[in-house]
UniProtKB/TrEMBL annotation:
Necessary cofactors: pyridoxal 5'-phosphate
Glycosyltransferase is among the record's keywords: yes
Key words of the record: Allosteric enzyme, Carbohydrate metabolism, Glycosyltransferase, Pyridoxal phosphate, Transferase
Biased composition (Basic residues): 418-428
Pfam families: Phosphorylase
Lineage of the organism: Eukaryota, Viridiplantae, Chlorophyta, core chlorophytes, Trebouxiophyceae
Function comment: Allosteric enzyme that catalyzes the rate-limiting step in glycogen catabolism, the phosphorolytic cleavage of glycogen to produce glucose-1-phosphate, and plays a central role in maintaining cellular and organismal glucose homeostasis.
Name recorded for this polypeptide: Alpha-1,4 glucan phosphorylase
Superkingdom of source: Eukaryota
Residue numbers bearing the N6-(pyridoxal phosphate)lysine modification: K725
Region (Disordered): 416-458
GO molecular function: glycogen phosphorylase activity; pyridoxal phosphate binding
TM segment ranges: none
Length: 880
């Protein structure tokens, strides 16, 4: 594979100035003229937030400088670009990441020190950019970091939500409260508004002879967010769209004194990019959500298509050689229809040409098999909002099914040969009952069964491939299956971990896989080792650099295998442990400041941080803690001495409408209140729920963790990405054979993880047949459930249905196997305690985890996407 042009300039970028005193002068200049601080107050009379803004404005200059050079260079070279379309980019904070990626940390530390501040304090003044829910959104952020670092020409495209992920507070009863995330209130120094880059986005209206006249039009305005690569002058771009009204306001209404009406249009337009839907792998289905999706997809495609046209005119056959759009889950999949519309309606291509181009330009990643997250829009909703797109989707569906007819016919004939259909006359006995007798018995005169036309077997077989299908729960209601649309319209489809890519071929996309196996790929997720190891764990990073004798490992993470040979070295183990201990102490201080809970630093730090979901089984974790508490309470003083002290930490948000998830949050908090205040327990057990878990918390929690919980029911977690972050930071895993845990076990050695529970092949059988007669409740499970029920943690009534959901098969069905996996989970927990008593063995494993984490760098993942799907090559920007 060819690399276009100059050598990968591993030196620093050409910067405005990197001399600390020049940087200091620049910060002062920005404080005065950007922040507007009166010079009399500079520097001593300023609060951290103002100083942060001055420093950020100064760092921004370096970013913009390199950004412009990168984008100009790429524009001149005109290589193939990848566009990463994602409804979510969970960026977190930018200051430290920018300074570190630009290799300006020492310079800025010195500069601000001379002004009387330290960079660490200023760091905390930044608002978190939480434009994502969890793993999927953070993955997109890691991906654009890797794209820039690898010098890959590419942009992220998304939505500039005014309100990101809600802020979570926990009230005194332990209940989750949701507060708006007003993240832009202090401005955003990391973005460049582009008032000159706008596109019109239409909605509703009608179609006449293929011509769409939208009934409503809004403007999409661009904001560019420079994304610095590491050890390269390349700075990539995340372009986010804001929705605005086309006309500032309705002047005639204003003149008539109807002020509300005058601004109504503005409000309606702005609503589109106002809030991030706080759902993660749970139900969507709101029209505004579809509006958001089309809004950013249309703006992004129009933008990329316009850029292409400016360079290549109407040579549309060249488009697949110049652009590829990666669709991050089903959220941007309306792109299939929108690209067709742009090519046909706006660029006058014929259907077949447009379809050929579309299928070569789009690619699709699936991130979940949770049925409720696989978006299916009612034809009625989609057809009203986007009538022309509905027409296009209809035709795609028709042509697609027509193309399958022959194959399906052959399949049906084959089936009939093996299994001849029963002759019709032999069917219902019911037929013999005279209609009059039925009427007497009060039954409907017409037999509905017989009214129904027997479905043509070819038709039926074709329907399973249908993009447009009938809602199985609501007769007569038609749905557009967005995942199917994406599969048909894409050149490649991938899952996000080996097991997940395998499952989608066997389940949700089985029929599609059989038709086009070459389309299906795996791209195991990865995370950026810059933010998730080098920057968040400076102590460990320094030890790694010292041990390996090089600081290039964040760009070449496989170098970490060099740590393996030190795993048994007692001196090295000691240093390794000391760093972990220091990180635990830092975390304890942060938790004390935020929650008031005092944590000892010697116990095992056990952490589960992720969205609250039944399938992720925080519930099972807290039940095991409840049982541990019971053991402690009933132990003799002698027995108590044998307990391995543990600090259990939870963090995560529950979607606002997710009933059970909210109960789980409350239960964890309630258990914490009781356990942490019980004098019998002392420092042997602590239970903490960190409120408002976000990227910033993760950066403090992960380096301090010794054990992390990756305990999803096998077959449910597509990949998981926190598992990789924990692994990089030398944290041991207790987990199921699910998602990327399986590949982590391969890299680290399965015997070094605490694996438990049913595996993916056993789960369906338990659900389908064993569950009904299963009575094998472990007495420890029963005890824990009783304690939830009997009011030990208060809120007796409130917790009844939570208890029932896994215990009373008449009321709940324990779909995620909390009860049957519980005993083996406790066995694994006991194993954890045993190994923790042997600190040398624990540390040895910890080192092996980090040493085996090279595969999980998002650089590796992105390189695979670039080589195997995108066909995009690095275009390093020359350093000046
Ligand atoms: C998710 C998966 O649930 C998670 O396992 C995966 O790691 C992540 C990124 O691929 O995508 N899918 C959805 S939906 N939300 C996620 O976090």
């Amino acid at each position: 594979r060819e690399v276009i042009s100059p050598s990968n300039g591993a030196s620093a970028s050409a910067k405005p100035s990197t001399d600390p005193s020049a940087v200091q002068a620049d910060v002062l200049q920005n404080l005065e003229y950007v922040v507007g601080a009166p010079s009399s107050k500079i520097p001593n009379g300023l609060d951290a937030s103002s100083v942060y803004r001055g420093v950020a404005a100064s760092v921004r200059e370096h970013l913009i400088d390199a950004f412009n050079r990168t984008q100009d260079y790429w524009s001149e070279k005109d290589p193939k670009f990848v566009y990463y379309l994602s409804a979510e980019f969970l960026m977190g904070r930018s200051l430290m990441n920018a300074v570190q990626n630009l290799e300006l940390t020492d310079t800025y530390s010195q500069a601000v020190k001379q002004l009387g501040y330290d960079l660490e304090t200023l760091r905390d003044a930044e608002q978190n950019a939480a434009l994502g829910n969890g793993g999927l959104g953070r993955l997109a952020a890691c991906f654009i970091d890797s794209m820039a670092t690898l010098n890959l020409p590419g942009w992220g495209y998304g939505i500039r939500y005014k309100y990101g992920m809600f802020k979570q507070a926990i009230d005194e009863k332990g209940y989750q409260q949701e507060l708006p995330d007003i993240w832009l209130s202090n401005g955003n120094p990391w973005e460049i508004p582009r008032p000159d880059i706008t596109f019109k986005i239409g909605f509703y209206g009608s179609v006449d002879n293929f011509k769409w006249s939208p009934g409503e039009t809004v403007l999409a305005k661009a904001y560019d967010n420079p994304i610095p690569g590491f050890k390269t002058p390349t700075v990539g771009n995340l372009r986010l769209w804001e929705a605005l009204p086309v006309a500032e306001f309705d002047l005639s209404a204003f003149n008539e004194g109807k002020y509300d009406k005058a601004v109504e249009e503005r409000r309606k337009a702005e609503d589109i990019s106002a809030v991030l839907y706080p759902n993660d792998a749970t139900e969507y289905g709101k029209e505004l959500r579809l509006k958001q999706q089309f809004f950013f997809v249309s703006a992004s495609l129009q933008d990329a298509v316009a850029r292409f046209k400016a360079k290549h005119g109407d040579n549309w056959q060249l488009l697949p050689e110049k652009a590829v759009f990666q669709m991050n889950d089903t959220h941007p999949t309306i792109a299939v229809a929108e690209l067709m519309r742009l090519l046909i309606d706006e660029q006058s291509l014929d259907w077949d040409t447009a379809w050929g181009i579309t299928q070569k330009t789009l690619a699709f990643t699936n991130h979940t098999v949770m049925p409720e997250a696989l978006e299916k829009w009612p034809v009625k909703v989609l057809g009203k909002l986007l009538p022309r797109h509905m027409e296009i989707i209809d035709k795609i569906d028709q042509i697609w099914k027509d193309s399958l007819k022959e194959k399906v016919l052959a399949q049906v004939e084959e089936m009939h040969k093996k299994n001849p259909p029963k002759p019709k006359a032999a069917k219902p006995l019911k037929k013999e009952v005279p209609l009059a007798a039925k009427a007497e018995a009060g039954e409907p005169a017409e037999d509905e069964d017989e009214e129904e036309e027997e479905e043509d077997p070819v038709e039926a077989a074709l329907n399973k491939y249908g993009i447009i299908t009938e809602n199985p729960w609501e007769k007569g209601v038609k749905l557009v299956n967005m995942a199917y649309l994406a599969v048909v319209g894409s050149k490649a489809v991938n899952g996000v971990a080996a097991i997940h890519s395998d499952i989608i071929k066997r389940t949700i996309f089985k029929d599609f896989y059989e038709l086009a196996p070459h389309k299906f790929q795996n791209k195991t997720n990865g995370v950026t080792p810059r933010r998730w190891l080098a920057w968040c764990n400076p102590g460990l990073a320094a030890l790694i650099t010292e041990t390996l004798g090089t600081d290039t490992w964040p760009n070449d993470l496989n170098l970490l295998t060099g740590l393996r040979k030190h795993a048994d070295d007692k001196e090295f183990q000691k240093k390794w442990r000391a760093i972990k201990h220091e990180n635990k102490a830092k975390l304890a201080a942060k938790i004390k400041a935020r929650t008031g809970v005092d944590l000892p630093t010697d116990p095992l730090y056990d952490i589960q941080i992720k969205r609250i979901h039944e399938y992720k089984r925080q519930y099972m974790n807290i039940l095991s803690i409840i049982y541990r508490y019971h053991q402690l309470k009933t132990a003799s003083p002698e027995e108590r001495k044998k307990f391995v002290p543990r600090v259990t930490i939870f963090g995560g948000k529950a979607a606002s409408a997710y009933y059970m998830a909210k109960k789980i949050v409350r239960l964890i908090n309630r258990v914490g209140m009781v356990v942490n205040n019980d004098p019998d327990v002392k420092d042997l057990l602590k239970v903490v729920f960190v409120p408002d878990y976000n990227v910033d918390w993760a950066e403090a929690l992960i380096p301090a963790a010794e054990l992390c919980q990756q305990i999803s029911t096998a077959g449910t977690e597509a990949s998981g990405t926190s598992n990789m972050k924990f692994q990089m930071n030398g944290c041991l895993i207790i987990g199921t054979m699910d998602g990327a845990n399986i590949e982590i076990a391969e890299e680290v050695g399965k015997e070094n993880l605490f694996i438990f529970g049913m595996d993916e092949s056993e789960v369906p059988a338990w659900r389908e047949s064993k569950r009904a007669e299963w009575k094998d409740y472990d007495p420890r499970f029963v005890k824990a459930i009783e304690m939830v029920r009997d009011g030990t943690f208060g809120d007796k009534e409130y917790f009844q249905d939570l208890a029932d959901s896994v215990y009373d098969m008449k009321k709940g069905n324990d779909w995620f196997l909390v009860a049957p996996d519980f005993a083996d989970y406790l066995r694994a927990q006991e194993e954890v305690d045993k190994v923790y008593l042997d600190q040398d063995e624990w540390t040895r494993r910890s080192i092996l985890y980090t040493a085996g984490s090279g595969f999980f760098s998002s650089d590796r993942t992105i390189k695979q996407y670039a080589d195997e799907i995108w066909d995009v090559v690095p275009v390093p920007v020359p350093s000046s």
